[in-house]
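Input structure tokens:
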């Protein structure tokens, strides 16, 4: 599971397409409200989530691109080898898993005495 940059080419329906173009045209059937703790305050995000089945150029593996809109100016694109189906539960599993991974990366390790 990785964050996909928009300038990366993907194969969608046999054609080479920029990730950001796929994300922009992606149908977003699911809406969720996410609350993020920022210090002592909570920030509410109303997100939309969609999905495209893609491949990387030169590769045979089928991958999923989960698209999340509503977190910033550009959509968040998560590329995953996890077997995603077009359901709220499956897509939110990927989104929340990525958020947990992201949270771990942002955590500053404590100095050991």
């Amino acid at each position: 599971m990785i964050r996909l940059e928009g300038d990366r080419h993907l194969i969608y329906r046999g054609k080479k397409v920029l990730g950001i173009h796929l994300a922009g045209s992606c149908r977003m059937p699911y809406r969720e409200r996410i609350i993020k703790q920022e210090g002592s305050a909570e920030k509410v995000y109303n997100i939309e989530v969609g999905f495209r089945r893609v491949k990387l150029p030169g590769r045979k593996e089928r991958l999923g691109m989960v698209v999340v809109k509503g977190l910033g100016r550009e959509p968040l694109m998560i590329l995953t080898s996890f077997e995603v189906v077009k359901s709220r539960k499956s897509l939110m599993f990927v989104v929340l898993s990525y958020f947990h991974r992201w949270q771990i990366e942002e955590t500053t390790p404590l100095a050991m005495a």
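Strands lie at 2-3, 9-12, 15-18, 30-38, 41-54, 63-69, 76-80. Residues 2-106 form one domain.
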